[in-house]
TrEMBL record:
Entry keyword rRNA processing: no
Protein name: Trafficking protein particle complex subunit 2-like protein
Gene Ontology annotations of biological process type: endoplasmic reticulum to Golgi vesicle-mediated transport
Pfam families: Sedlin_N (PF04628)
Organism, as annotated: Hyalella azteca
Amino acid sequence: MAVSIAVIGKDNAPLYMWVAPGRDELNLQFLSHTALDIIQEKVSPANRAPTDSRELYLGLLYASEEYKIFGYMTNTKIKLVIITDASNTTLRDNEIRMMFRRLHNAYTSAVCNPFYSPGDPLISKKFEASVGALVSGN
């Protein structure tokens, strides 16, 4: 399903990055960080409608020939980015939205650990297992 998943902090520092085996990790990191500009545009007050409620899911940010990049931003300004293959036409918007909700719940559980310091890289076996289940479709 997903080719890459990134969790990026409120200061735009990467907290976690998962890349599918056999993929170009550097290129996918670059795509994740280029998505930050589009996320900033989408959440800026000038681009919001007055009746727009606080929607966390930002939808498709942009598509290239190879990939589709989707974004999500939490209330605490943590950005979640999921990159999928552009050739994968079976994924619907609802499925991507559910992936983000599950990823957000896993992130919330991981940062609720009293030994985690906010802003540090996310190193958690339970979070890794949740991401593994998410990308395998379980």
